[in-house]
Write a structure and sequence with these properties.
It is a single chain. The chain has 768 residues and is α/β, with parallel strands linked by helices. 38% of the residues lie in helices and 20% in strands. The strands form six sheets. An eight-stranded mixed sheet has the order 14-21-20-16-17-18-19-15. Strands 24-25-26-27-28-29-30-31 form an eight-stranded parallel barrel, surrounded by five helices. Strands 9-8-7-6-12-13 form a six-stranded antiparallel sheet. About 6% of the residues have low confidence.
Amino acid sequence: MKPPIKWFEDLNKEDTSVAGGKGANLGEMIRAGLPVPPGFVITSAAFQSFIEDAGLHSEIEQRLGTLDVNDHDTLEAAASDIQKRIRGSHMPATVRSSMIEAYRQLSKRDGATDAAVAVRSSATMEDTKEASFAGMNRSFLNVIGDEALESSVIEVWASLYSPRVIFYRKNKQLPGEPEIAVIVQKMVNAEKSGVAFTIDPATGDQNTIVIEAALGLGEVVVSGQVEPDHYEVDKSSLRLKKAHIGYQRFMLTRGEDRRNIRVDLPAPKADSRVLSDAEIRAVAELVRKDEEHYGTAQDTEWAFEQGLLYLVQSRPVTTGIDSENQSQSDSTNVLNVLVTGLPASPGRRAGRVRVLLTPSEGASLEEGDILVSVMTTPDWVPFMRRAAAIVTDSGGMTSHAAIISRELGLPCIVGARNATQVLSDNLTVTVDGGAGVVYEGEIAESPQGASRAQTNGLTAPGRIVTATKLMVNLGEPDRAQDVAQMNVDGVGLLRAEFMLLTALDGVHPRRLIAEGRSEEFVDRMTSQLQIFADAFYPRPVIYRSTDFRTNEFRGLAGGEEFEPVEENPMIGLRGAYRYVKDPEMFKLELEVLRLIRETRPNIHLMIPFVRAEPELRVCLQYVAESGLRDKRDFTIWIMAEVPSVLYALDAYAALGIYGVSIGSNDLTQLMLGIDRDSEPLSPLFDERDPAVLSAIRRIVFECRRLGLHSSICGQAPSVHPEYAAELVRAGIDSISVTPDAVESTRYNIAAAEQLLMLESHRAKFIER
């Protein structure tokens, strides 16, 4: 038998038949001087020795020779039987002894008795231009000890005969018998990790590097378990062109027992930016160097551990992009937008929706259906070819199934968040994978032409002007410049929390204050806020001071020292009362505003979660002491989230506030008695409830009576288009929505205003 073990440094890109595509690439990367964690490969010859010793060769050949892979039940049965036989067979003694000896040497390199390693597949056709096999074969992280290593290797071998791999090989018409090598590599306990493409995989743009990132181990990115951050970088200048901040409910990391553990992330951390500008540039620079070495576009995986950047995988990009399959944003048809997400694979297809929650339901997917699922994983591959397009709630455009969608030429949208709730079985929709949009109904043709905004069933060309101001909700500095170019009248809600997390690198602000670093806090926050002030000047930017809840603050470094444990943080120590109880940080925020207004007087203040007049009075006293109340045109807003605002507005107006911004999320929570964090109660949470709408109308009416400005910055108008008409009819002064909802909301406001004008004219005509 040929040597069963090969170290990375003894391999190069020509050794695919020995080490598989992935293993050969790792050897090539080390030879190129790229930062790759050390390891070795259990060769394809070792796998063949195992199959022959176990007498499985002829059995497998006979079972798969005439298999109809489109018959789901038969495919599952064949795969199950073969895998059972592999798991029940023993590894040849020579292979096992060589593997254990190599593991011992790798452990010594890492300074451990039993090193934690990653055990990954490396099939001989894997990670090649012809086929990526993305996520098809098994991988195991943090494997420790001889027995665990042996078991993991056998599981990787067995995964070569999973239903999805058998299906994939058959449909790709891959030649020869399947062979597989196994990578054993030092485990990088990543603080941040992800995927990077050296071209845009959705469009084929060769001058764009696409990076997707998450906290912890990169498994959550490639498996599509979370919506990662998405960054686009100019390949020539390494300038960040675009940043989309994802939502990460949890991370995977190494626990005290050196095993993977899941850590749930508090809300502010879940949707905060993962990579700094410097880290983005470092990843982009590294993968550009990787592409230069190979001479072709690369799909890579990377990780940061203790400040060091590693490249853990590299393979040729398999986009499957067809110029005739590009999305056409223009259409003669006028359709409602039902769902939006990240464009993962281009093309436009129409069909009937089929919502499937597990692969076991795949038999119900018919040819030409739109597959809608919570998460894209490789387990769906046997059914993907039947689908006309794919839409998922989570995942990024670099997840494994998204890669397969591009290979198969299927339009794909990921990270849509609520597709499985909004879309229902048998509903006819059109999926535009290049635009990341699902429309109601069918677009029969895809004519060429310039893009037009599809807004709530109507086309909205031009720059619409409305009497009701349209503002935007923001929090991420990297988006300021782009959003400022949109047709908005300013920022109606600038969330302090996002800037705080970025500026302080996840450290609790009280820790900085306790360490005498208050000036550092002010400097960092000022630099963040300055970005928004400059981008939108002279349009107003309303800064909402921090509204962290105690469970979120406890998640920051040093948080446990300063934050109490509360049973229900949603209605606990937050907002205005937090400033009364602990004013130090609020005073520092006021100092930040004061400094910004010396050059940019478009910055204003909004105080959140005001429960009663006494606490607001104290907060306004702090504002006065900061000198801000003396500033010309400086305005102070309060959030209307607590129903007591309905009875206290007269007192608030007497204290000199300028305006009231309705937080529809919290107002709904307290009007209906529904904890926003409660999953069992989530079906009852509805900002369109008559009681909530009645409260909003009354707040707007009372503001007009008292000469106060009224606005809304909750999620309702961003999510429910009909909300705009309700608010305009009530007489609200401004509506603030998320950037993606700007065009549709502007159109809805204009339509509502025109309808009111028409009704007024009709009434006057009838009077005559």
